[in-house]
Amino acid sequence: MKKTLRPGISAYLPLGLISAGLVVLYLFVWVVRGPQTNAWQPIVLVVGVYLLWCLSLWRRVIVLDEGGIRCTYLMRKARSVTWSEIDRSVMVNWIDRKPYQVLIFGQSAETPLMELPLRLYHPTDVELLLNMDGLKLEVG
After folding, report:
1. How far apart are CA 93 and CA 110, in angstroms?
2. Of the residues 42, 59, 104, 122, which has the maximum number of CB atoms within 10 A of its CB?
């Protein structure tokens, strides 16, 4: 069994809506005041930041298989944890009592081996992850 978890559409939408609003505002300024205002510079900056955010989310992948958990990142080295290395996992809840993240601990009780942000992923993927037997999940 190999399952790949990718961030859901809800991870892309908030910053996308903010970016789209700013781009529309700058386009309005550019049209009303004319091209001499250099409004294209903030448009390029806003779109560039949003594209970097999308790229970082696209690279944030959790792979669950028989061996363990593997998490890839955009700018960091991929991390892998085997099921035998996991001593305990703690689920941290958000203010509204929904799961926020999972901290996976090994022999060290203070430093987590891996942190999995659950708000980025689809609710069905989160349910699958939280029901994995190898995680030894506790609510913290």
Report:
1. 18
2. 104
